[in-house]
Structure formats: C-alpha cells, structure tokens
Amino acid sequence: MIDIIKKWFWYDWMAVGLRTIWLFIVAIASFVNPSQAVAPVWTIIFVLLVYLIPLMVKYRSENKYLVVEVISAGFFYLYIAYVASDLLWSFAIFVLIIGLASNRKTYVWTGISGVLIFPILNGWISNQLPLEFVVSCSISFIIGFAFNVLIQSHNQAGIIQEQKQLLEQHLSKIEELTLKEERNRLSHELHDTIGHSLTSLIVGVESLRSSLPASQIERVDTLVSIGQRSLDNIRKHLHQLSDTPSNHSLSESIQQLTQEFMKSTGITVHFRVIGSETLVMQKMNFCLYRCLQESLTNAVRHGQASKVSVDLYFDSQHLRLQIEDNGSGMETSQFGFGLQGMKERLNLLHGSLSVHSGPQQGTIVICTIPLQIELVQGTIRLLIVDDQVIIADSLKHILDQHTDFLVVGTAGNGHDALTLCEQSQPDIVLMDVHMQGMNGLEALQEMKRRWSTMKIVLMTTFEDTKQAATALENGVEGYMLKSIHPKEMIEAMKLIYNGGTWIDQTVAARVFEEMKRQREVLEKIGPNDPYGLTKRDREILEQLSNGMRYKSIAANLFLTEGTVRNYCSTLYSKLGVSNREEAVERARSENLL
Fold this sequence. Notes:
The protein is α/β, with parallel strands linked by helices. The protein folds into 5 domains: 156 residues, no CATH class; 52 residues; 121 residues, Histidine kinase-like ATPase, C-terminal domain (Heat Shock Protein 90), CATH 3.30.565.10; 144 residues, Rossmann fold, CATH 3.40.50; 61 residues, Orthogonal Bundle (Arc Repressor Mutant, subunit A). Helix content is 62%, strand content 11%. The protein contains 21 helices and 11 strands. A hairpin with a 5-residue loop joins strand 4 and strand 5. Helix 7 packs antiparallel against helix 8 and helix 10 packs antiparallel against helix 11. It is elongated and about 115 Å long.
C-alpha cells in the first residue's frame, strides 16, 4: 500500500482529500445533531466502511472500483435520506469524486446513477423535491468529469512529449553512429599518416634530451609540447573528447572544481598549492580529483560546513591533498561507501587515506600518494615491439636511462616478439597495436596463451574504445597512448610490474562501457551458439557470407591474408565443414549470422 501511495499524483491526493472532508462533515454532524440519526455510532461505522472499502478495492482492482464506489455511496445516502435528511447535500461531494474517477467508457452509467437515480430516490425517501438534488449532483459530476478530461489530456501530452524525446534521442543516436563510423575511418587513415609521423617526432626528440646541452632542453620541451598538442587536437576532432580533469594539470583541475563548487553551493573554499608542482600521472590526477569531490560533498551534506580549506602539497617523495572543514564533525571516522571508495582508489596507487574528526570540531581528510613507486624487487626486463624502427629505438633509449629498467630486445612484429619472448622471458612486453604481419592484439592472445604471467602493455597513437576493450578482455595489463610523457610511462610500468593495471584516463570510462556492451551481446548469443564462435569468427563468417575473398577480408579487418586463412581454418574446424560454401550454408541454416 505504501509503495502505491508513493506513486500518487496530485489528483489522487485531491480525491482522497475530498473523501476525508466528506468523512469529517458526516461524522461531526452525527455527533453534533444526534437527534437526526437513529444510532450515531452505527452511522459512524457505516461512514468508515464507505470511506475505506472503495479505496482498498481501487488499489487492488481498478476495474471494480467505480462499481463499489457508486453502490456503497448510493446505498449509504439512501440510509441518510431516512435518518438524517439534512446531510443529503453532502452526496454532491461523492458525486464529484465519482465524476473525477469516470472515463469515456464509464461516464454514462456513473452519471445516470449519481445524477438521476440516487438523487431521485433520496428525495422520494426524505419527502423532498428531488430537483435540487439533481441540479447540485449534476454540477458536481460535470466538474469532476471535466477535471478528469483535463488530467487525461495532460497525461496524453506528457506521453507525446516523452515519445518525441525518445524519437529525438533515436535520431541523435543514428547521427552519432554515422559520425562514429566516419571518425573510425579517419582514425585508421590518420593513424598510418599524421599520427605515426607526430608520434615518431615526439619520441625521437624526447630520446635526444639526455645528449643535448642544458641550453637546448627548453627547445626540446617546446618541440615535444607542440607535437603533443597536435596529437591532442586530432583526438578531439576524431572522438569529440570533453574537457575532462585529466586534460589539465592537477592544480588547475582542483582550482576549477573548487570554483564550480563555490558557485553551486555558496560555501567558501580556500585553495592553495604548497611546493613546486610537478607532472603527475593521469591516474593520480583523476584519483585526487574524485577524492576532493567526495570530501566537498560530505562536508556540506553531512557536516553542514560553511567553510572549507583545500591544500595541495608537493614534495620530492609524496603528493598530499588535505581537505579541512568547519562542520559538525563526527564522533568516530566511519568508512561508509564514499570514504571506502576513496580509500580503494588511493590503495590502487599505493597511497593512503586518513580522516580526523570530532563532535563540533570539523573534519580533516588527508589523501597521500607516493610520487615514486618503489619496485617490489630487482630490475624490470622489457621487450619493445613496434614496426617503426625510430619509435622502438627511441623508447629503448629513454628506458635505458633508468636503472630500474633493462630492455632485453626489440621486435618489429608479433612473430618476432614471440620468438624473443621465448628466448629472453621479459617481465613486460611494451607493444604497438597496429603492425604488419601479426598485430598487437593477435600477439597478445598468443603470449597470454603461452605465458599467462607475462605482463603486456599495448601502445597506440589514437585511442580506440573497441580495441582497448578487446585487449582488456584478453588480459592486457596496460593500454597507453604513444604520446604519453616519459615520466608517466615509467611510473605506469612500475605500477604494472607491481601487479597493477594502467589504462589511459581519456578512454577508460568508454572502455568499460564497451566491455559491458560486449558481455551483454555474448550473453544474448551464448546459449544459441553450440560451436563456441568468437567475435572474430563471427566477423569473418559475416564477410564470407557476403562473398568476400581472403584478400578483401584482410583489408576490411586490418589483418594479413595469412592470418585470415588461419582464422578460416579454425572456423571451418569449429563448424565441422571443409570449405567456405559449407560454412556459409551452415551459418544460415542455424542462424549463426
């Protein structure tokens, strides 16, 4: 019953209000003028039954409600006409309620009953002229039914508006999918032209840093900055990336958040930076940004604070964010959902959370993250895989400058990488996605099959949500852009070596949505697929059904012709057929496409 009441609209409350007014009128009249009633107590019991029973019926069976309402109210007033005729005028309230509940299918019989039959019978029993009763009840019914028409019109308008919005969303989705398809096409073209060129320049110039005199370092920084901005601009045009906190420095992100918070809440927030700001990993930036959001929300929602101080400390070893408010505080620091989420975020970066509070003493939240991640043990053995020699050599040069890393080899494609993995057993494989021969995703699957504990990091010029989701589903430990700052790449490698996972923050949210979508698709098709076909199997099967040859399929899926032949052989084996014609025929007969 309570769940039903929560869904009431204003007109439901209006009907209940009218019933309640009627209840008080009849009840008070029965006690004030007891001479009018034969047995006031029985009259009150009768009133309560008339008040409650129709309500109970209404929310159990809508179809029976009007019948019960008309019968109970009608016979009650036949009784009133006999014992207290002075109260007959209140029947008009019930007729108004009946009119409000009537619709185009029921208004004829409810109107005749409430306006003619019962008023005439009431007048006859009470020895009064029924005309007055008929007129008053007619006006009440018309008012109630008119309200009902207005309500229905309003509801219909709401439904039409909702359908319009759904249609607009549908059209917007179609437009979005069209634009996405065009962006994907451009992405593949730019990846092989402008993207590779800019990435090669950035990595190559960065690798020269250590061999240049100090007077030329500023020029190197300028050139690298220009290249990275150019790549960022291309990404924004391709993917319509929003201006997220990760696109700013940490202090800029926090400054922007505090200003927006002050505008929306009116709470005074003082922010300051202590120490010299240094470049931090995007994950650190994003983690502290979310921690500050949660802390500011808690300060207002739970602490009723009017003033908050936010301090961001930089030193050589740690990064610390301190949020102090003047709110009501709390007796004990209870790690609910919000604080527990902050703690888990910080733990992923080997950080810590401490909360200090007391009744009427405000709350201090301190988030600490180490800037340098310590290795669990030894040196990280790295294998670099990239078909562009300049990028592979530049990455090797950058990593060789750090004593924590040892580059055990470089490879130009997936096949060579598998051979080197067999020989050198690296801790981490840093591998490009798009390569001639065996690409990064294919090599990833084979590496994980042979060496399940080996950590793989994929690098790419432009983020591809579908590609990143597939990589994570296949067990990749890292997914990063080639334009990543060397310092951030070093810290990401250490994080991965210590058992963590690193994914570029600009694509993380979209990747997890894509992974969720892929799982939902697999769940839907799983029970109907007795052959255990993978997503790639279905893509190739679809191409085969369209009459495509191996060479064309390879071009469409960005694979080599030899790889497509291998996939087809596996596909034929799963389906229990010997050629493409039999595979297509079986797929169509068993609705596998």
